[in-house]
Amino acid sequence: MINEPVTPRHSQKQSNMETSIQKDFEHLLKKAASAHRQGKLAKAEKGYQNILKKRPDWGRALNALGNLFLDQNRPEKATKIFEKAIHLTPPDLSACYNLGRMKQMENDHRGAIPIYKMMLDEQPNIGEAWNNLGVAYRETGKQDDAISCFRKAVAFAPGMAEAWNNFGVAQDELDLTEKALDSYKKAIETDPDYASAHLNIGICLQKAEQLKKAEAHYNKVLEIQPDNKVATFMLQSLGLLETPDAVPVEHVRNIFDRCADNFETILVKDLEYKTPERLFDLVRPHLTEEINVLDLGCGTGLGAQFYQPFAKHLTGVDVSSKMLEKAAEKKIYSHLEVFDILQEWHFPQKFDLIYSSDVFVYFGNLDSIIRSASTSLVDGGIIAFSVELLETSSQKYQLFPSGRYAHSQTYIEDCLECHGFQLMKKNKADIRKQSGKQVKGLLIVAAKRP
What we know:
By secondary structure, this protein is an alpha/beta fold. The protein has 2 domains: about 25-235, Alpha Horseshoe (Serine Threonine Protein Phosphatase 5, Tetratricopeptide repeat), CATH 1.25.40; about 255-450, Vaccinia Virus protein VP39 (Rossmann fold), CATH 3.40.50. The chain contains 20 helices and 9 strands. The longest helix is centred in the N-terminal third of the chain and has 29 residues, at about 10-35. The model is unreliable at about 1-10 (pLDDT under 50).
């Protein structure tokens, strides 16, 4: 007969002692956390630090101290503490999450990816982490990985409206419109007051020309967020409110940030976009070498290749940082800068040429832009740009449900004349496709009078 092994008494005693010590640490952590919640940050910090002197590898205490440093606006210290916590075995998952979020808030999405992956390797059912990882992949141009992450996010956290909305955005970017609509609708089923999802549904419906339904969702956004500029603009584009001077800059930025990765494929292949080439053909006879050139609203730099051989210095500006990242990859520009065209222009030198393809369609009133261009050009300098053509001359410009403006030829000529330009060339041309139809445009070249 084999007897069961008997646990030695000293082992049981040791276990009881360890339990007692753990309870003591838990009690100290609760006291420090209580002080933290009450805003007694110095007292809380002292409590956390005392615990970590005796138990330096306790993940929960490290994470708590990291959060305290964040509350004290000491992000560098918080980062060091979180990094220590995530390199424990096993890593502290809360610290992983917090450090990942910090990196994303600093726009370091690439740095956040391995941290979330480490976290999900330990515990793969955290929907919030899958959602954040999906955002990081989307921001770094890995759309398929983003879709996969958002799919897992909504599986593990089906009640997370943000994850459903992000899933919809990722599907939208891949032109999976119906699936995107379903995801947006799931978001508002989960949270009926989720404004971003209502706005996204409205934009999808407007593209599908279901304007009444789109209007209802925009109105819902404004019920939730009365100051939402994009929802207001979309209603303006439907002719339901007074026409604004321009598309809100945050809307333009969001559009182009979201489509930066597949922008050229969509524009050149799908929409047969040839405006940069056609505009250059008009400008070419007036170009000399070694000139200073400004690409106004440069996007990914589709037109830059034509002007580079003539440029001593080629500057590209755009409201979208994501588009500028793509432009930088071409290694054509001397300088690239995030820039709002409606702000004051302060460039270190004047330009010999300013060109802009398919940018003025996001502005109705062009007065301030033409004025700024005039002050930024040398005498005799050239401005070249495209607009969508408004056939009637009874209006200066008109905003359409596409969210773009068309301008009358008379208005363009008057605006140029007002700011000291002499019209040199004007050509009617198809500037792109929209909903399968060619969009009629006007290409303009004008010179600043001495």
